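4.2 Preliminary Data

To establish feasibility before requesting continued support, the project team ran the inverse folding procedure on a target of 348 residues. The structure was first converted into the token representation described in Section 3, and no sequence information of any kind was made available to the design step. The complete token record follows.
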């Protein structure tokens, strides 16, 4: 075929040397200056055109038989390809069936491994609602996961990362749960303490109200007696004006004594009431102050503990006098600040 191709290319009567000669003849012509140069250019165009027409005509003569042969070759190629296609497609289908089967097995293997990894990850979902015991159990469960290359294969790194991340989240959740449980226990204890104080205050108020009711009842009785005495006094005064006998005078004197007794009793009662109110007010103030002190005691304790921690601090071992002086000055400042802190905490 290589010899045939060379023969067919050589079938053109024109050669490249002829074209090179033509280019050499007219290659330096770049501008027309007169009629002779114009005729020279036109002659060159005719020579180029004649050779171009010759090449085109010879191409048609050479290509005709080759084009027919090419069509015959293409038809034979199609015939052979049509014969080959059924067998090739059948083998492709067989190969595809096997490839799909192997791919399905591989996908099942990957899905099973990823499901195990998802199971590890799922141990750290919705942690904020779990109890401390449940979180500790989950931590132990994740620690007990047996992550081996045999079971997780190329995903063993993903499985270990998932277990590590789950343990980190579980540990954070456990510490947070412990803090929240401790805070809740403190809140419940504080609420119980306040409830007890409220119950005591309620009992004291009820007792004071009962005493006040008793005093009011006695006062009502005294008021009735005083009104009766006033009525008797009015009657005696009327009788005194009309009669001066001994009996009336005695009755009047008796009334005066009784009135004095009742007034003394009233004065004693009012004094007792004032003293009782003063006592209750003092007790209320003392209890309020005690409750305030008890409520602030945890903060005072924390401030004092903090102050003690600061006082326990010791400067580093220093060599230069300048550095030691700086440390001594700073310690003096810190001790003064801590003493001020302690003094202020006692006044809470």
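Position-by-position output of the design step:
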């Amino acid at each position: 075929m290589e010899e045939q191709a060379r023969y067919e290319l050589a079938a053109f009567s024109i050669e490249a040397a002829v074209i090179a000669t033509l280019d050499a003849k007219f290659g330096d012509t770049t501008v027309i200056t007169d009629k002779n140069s114009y005729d020279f250019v036109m002659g060159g165009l005719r020579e180029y055109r004649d050779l171009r027409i010759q090449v085109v005509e010879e191409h048609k003569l050479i290509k005709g038989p080759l084009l027919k042969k090419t069509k015959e070759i293409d038809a034979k190629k199609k015939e052979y390809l049509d014969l080959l296609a059924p067998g090739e497609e059948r083998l492709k289908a067989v190969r595809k069936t096997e490839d799909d089967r192997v791919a399905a097995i591989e996908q099942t293997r990957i899905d099973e491994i990823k499901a195990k990894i998802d199971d590890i990850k799922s141990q750290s979902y919705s942690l904020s609602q779990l109890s401390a015991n449940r979180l500790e159990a989950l931590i132990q469960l994740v620690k007990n996961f047996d992550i081996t290359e045999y079971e997780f294969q190329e995903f063993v790194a993903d499985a270990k990362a998932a277990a590590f991340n789950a343990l980190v989240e579980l540990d954070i959740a456990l510490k947070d749960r412990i803090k929240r449980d401790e805070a809740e226990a403190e809140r419940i204890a504080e609420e119980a303490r306040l409830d007890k104080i409220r119950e005591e205050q309620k009992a004291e108020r009820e007792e004071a109200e009962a005493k006040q009711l008793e005093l009011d009842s006695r006062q009502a009785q005294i008021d009735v007696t005083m009104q009766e005495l006033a009525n008797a006094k009015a009657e005696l005064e009327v009788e005194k004006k009309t009669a001066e006998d001994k009996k009336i005078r005695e009755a009047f004197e008796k009334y005066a004594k009784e009135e004095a007794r009742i007034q003394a009793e009233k004065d004693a009662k009012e004094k007792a009431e004032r003293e009782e109110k003063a006592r209750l007010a003092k007790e209320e103030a003392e209890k309020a102050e005690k409750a305030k002190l008890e409520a602030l005691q945890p903060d005072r304790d924390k401030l004092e503990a903090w102050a003690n921690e600061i006082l326990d601090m010791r400067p580093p071992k220093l060599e230069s006098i300048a550095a030691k002086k700086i440390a001594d000055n700073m310690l003096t400042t810190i001790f003064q600040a801590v003493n001020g802190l302690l003094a202020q905490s006692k006044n809470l």
